[in-house]
Amino acid sequence: MTLARDWIDTALNAKLTKNQLLCFLAVFHQSLCYGKSSDAVTDKRLSEISKVRVDRLRPAMHKLVELGVIEAQEHDRFDGEYSIPAELISANNGIVFSPSLAKKPAAQPAAQPAAQPAAQPAAQPAAQPAEPAAQPAAQPAAQPAAQPAAQPAAQPAAQPAESLQYPASFYQDDRERAATILDGLSPDTASDCLALLTRAMQQDKVKSPHGYLYALVGKARDGVLDTAPLRKSAEPSREKTTDKVALMELRAQIIGIDSMAKLSGGMDTTTASKRAALIAEYSQIAARFTAAASGTAASVAA
């Protein structure tokens, strides 16, 4: 484990930030843990392993190279090839292997069985007849009491994510991130948080949906979540939704698509078609809304 220890020491002495340390561990995992001195990998894969966002991953990797913790070179198929510093490999005679712990000797387990059988059969047959009667009564009583109490308490947390109503602009990854934020809440409380988020997005009050949801969950955990707006907005039916509300919903969906495209660096054909359809529907309702407003103004003037 000399090479692994030396490489870890290099990272510790560099006083890395959290993101830099996570990126180092990802490179360590992809290279030395598989017995390799380097590994060619995409930024997306490194982001998945390190849990560091792609836009923050590149600066962290550049800083690791600058500090001499890793070495990097361009690759014709992947975003880069990252390797163990050459001086560390040279210091270990050029030997690169996957680190592993030494196996414990088998002498200790062999010594215990030899001592117990000799002592118990000789001394305890006459003195301990009462123990077999006590043990069967104790074990059945302890096991059933522990298992039924644990199983019902673990299942309710898995149900909310499947039945919750997320905002219409949320894609699958948005829903998974929201489900992580809502983890631990009861189904009713989680539904209230999502309903308040959707309502705020329709009113164009939200810049960061997940940040807004995180704040709502914090209030819910503190017992100060205000659900009065939901009680008021629940009275009118879905069929009576006004053109103004419909326009806000469509606008929120379009903004959501544009935000995702900006983060991912592009938009595929399916998403572009969906965005075009939303814009067309928005324009149609906006024209109807404007015409209705003009007609109302004209009747008032007459």
From TrEMBL:
Q: What InterPro entries does this protein's entry cite?
A: Phage_lambda_VrpO_N, Plasmodium_CSP_Invasion, WH-like_DNA-bd_sf
- Positions the record marks as coiled coil are none
Origin species, per record, is Thiothrix lacustris
Taxonomic lineage: Bacteria, Pseudomonadati, Pseudomonadota, Gammaproteobacteria, Thiotrichales
Segments passing through the bilayer: none
Name of one Pfam family that matches: Phage_rep_O
What is the name of the protein in this document? Bacteriophage lambda Replication protein O N-terminal domain-containing protein
Task: Tell me which residues make up the Bacteriophage lambda Replication protein O N-terminal domain.
Answer: 3-74
Query: What is one process in the GO biological process aspect for this record?
Result: DNA replication
Give residue spans, biased composition: Low complexity. 107-161
Region annotated Disordered, chain positions: 107-162
